[in-house]
């Protein structure tokens, strides 16, 4: 067995990028390579622990690599998607924190940011000389799936490692997706309890020193390093800027989590989880900046409701994406048959630019969109209403195609993905796509008339939120500006109350 030197808790998280069995490491090569894609942390990172142990077993150095692209594969570029400064900055802030932490583990974290004058095939070059490559599990989601395939095509033995789920998705059958969230929780309950009760692995350290870094490597230790990278010309979407007060990285993730727990967030979770002005953890969790097992363990001690939502909704989306690679972008595969005729001809829709700036004419939806544009975050409770409204505007992206049930449905999905992933810090991950697809009927049951259940944006107002409140809250979080006096007391209570974090 190729990974027999590893503890069972790491072996169960591994699968090959290609084929049915893990390929053995090559007999020759200069190093082991770990490609960090979706697990931006050094503590409790199964990919890193696997790579460190593999390097020590093979008696070669470990090189860690993070590549931030400035363009997307065809599936995303087709709908007008480009990497944004916002998403890039969030990850760069994490990488700046991680470089010294990984150096302290005896390795090096090489960073390559694609930009004008610097688009070397960094991953392929290092993979071609590696005895083994470890890549964070991509779950069939772009751009990570294409990245892993490029690495594999160099001939390097390539292992994928699940760092996102309490119960590794590769160990679960398709039957676990039957019966909605409750069915998934029943199917995974015993496995989850066993893993939450297990003793965490002691962190490993590389025994062989890494070589000097290549010339394209970015040292992010300087105070202005992130700003300098963002200022360099590139193909990124620079119109979607950095959220200065929401910093990326494990320290910020843990600080937000611990503050919420200390403020009785878990104890009051069942009662407060639907507060539409809540802070959320999804950006940090989806980027792997905090260990989901740690969050689930903390939750299991206090709130079963938290564990059921955190693990159930998130991990069922990971499993579905893993078993249906790329299907999250294809309405004909993702939307159930009963929901495929749900869209009809509509009045002229607002164009994409109007929707992006929150000028649809629906006051509650526009408030949600402005909050998302400003802060990069939107609580799950309001995002469901925000997302349910978008399919009606599918005409904005039909682009002259004949309006058939199939083209309308695909246009609706394209618009959902574009508006979400362009602005949301938690976009581009299976749980985020699960929420978007739910708006079209994915893993749901038919409502009246055999179509997905309606969720008008007015439901946001039933919790005491008025149009403009979300935008004001976003401005407080983003730039520290004061809310209007007449809403001061209400906004202060929103900001100080225990918050839900699953959104």
TrEMBL record:
Protein name: Photolyase/cryptochrome alpha/beta domain-containing protein
Record region (Disordered): 477-503
Photolyase/cryptochrome alpha/beta domain residues: 30-164
Native source species: Pelagomonas calceolata
MF terms in GO: deoxyribodipyrimidine photo-lyase activity
GO BP, sorted A to Z: photoreactive repair
Pfam families listed in its UniProt record: DNA_photolyase
Residue ranges of the TM segments: none
Biased composition (Polar residues): 491-503
């Amino acid at each position: 067995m190729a990974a027999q030197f590893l503890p069972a808790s790491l072996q169960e998280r591994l699968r090959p990028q290609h084929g049915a069995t893990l390929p053995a490491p090559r007999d020759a090569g200069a190093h082991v390579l770990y490609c960090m894609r979706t697990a931006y942390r050094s503590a409790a990172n199964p990919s890193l622990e696997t790579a460190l142990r593999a390097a020590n077993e093979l008696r070669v150095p470990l090189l860690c690599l993070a590549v931030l692209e400035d363009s997307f594969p065809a599936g995303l570029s087709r709908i007008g998607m480009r990497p944004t400064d916002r998403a890039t900055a969030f990850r760069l802030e994490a990488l700046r924190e991680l470089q010294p932490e990984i150096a302290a583990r005896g390795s090096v974290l090489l960073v390559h940011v694609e930009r004008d004058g610097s688009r070397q095939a960094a991953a392929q070059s290092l993979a071609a000389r590696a005895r083994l490559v470890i890549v964070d599990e991509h779950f069939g989601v772009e751009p990570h799936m294409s990245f892993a395939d490029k690495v594999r095509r160099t001939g390097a033995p390539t292992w994928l490692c699940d760092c996102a789920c309490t119960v590794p998705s590769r160990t679960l059958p398709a039957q676990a997706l039957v019966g909605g969230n409750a069915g998934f929780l029943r199917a995974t309950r015993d496995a989850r309890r066993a893993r939450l009760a297990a003793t965490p692995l002691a962190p490993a350290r590389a025994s062989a020193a890494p070589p000097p870094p290549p010339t394209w490597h970015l040292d992010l230790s300087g105070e202005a390093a992130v700003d300098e990278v963002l200022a360099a010309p590139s193909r990124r979407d620079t119109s979607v800027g950095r959220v200065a007060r929401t910093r990326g990285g494990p320290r910020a993730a843990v600080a937000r989590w611990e503050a919420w727990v200390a403020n009785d967030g878990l104890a009051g979770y069942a009662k407060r989880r639907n507060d539409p002005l809540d802070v959320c953890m999804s950006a940090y969790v989806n980027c792997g900046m905090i260990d989901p097992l740690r969050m689930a363990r903390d939750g299991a001690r206090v709130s079963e409701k938290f564990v059921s939502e955190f693990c159930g909704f998130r991990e069922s989306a990971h499993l579905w994406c893993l078993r249906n690679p790329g299907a999250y972008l294809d309405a004909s595969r993702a939307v159930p048959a009963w929901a495929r005729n749900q869209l009809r001809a509509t009045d002229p829709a607002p164009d994409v630019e109007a929707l992006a700036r929150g000028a649809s004419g629906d006051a509650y939806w526009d408030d949600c969109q402005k909050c998302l544009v400003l802060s990069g975050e939107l609580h799950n409770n309001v995002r469901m209403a925000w997302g349910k409204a978008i399919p009606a505007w599918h005409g904005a992206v039909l682009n002259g195609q004949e309006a058939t049930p199939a083209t309308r449905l695909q246009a609706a999905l394209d618009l959902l993905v574009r508006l979400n992933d362009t602005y949301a810090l938690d976009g581009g991950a299976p749980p985020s796509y699960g929420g978007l697809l739910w708006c079209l009927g994915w893993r749901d049951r038919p409502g009246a008339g055999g179509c997905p259940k309606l969720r008008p944006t007015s439901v946001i107002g039933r919790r005491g939120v008025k149009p403009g409140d979300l935008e004001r809250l976003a401005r407080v979080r983003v730039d520290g500006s004061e809310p209007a006096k007449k809403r001061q007391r209400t906004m202060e209570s929103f900001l100080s109350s225990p918050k839900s974090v699953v959104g």
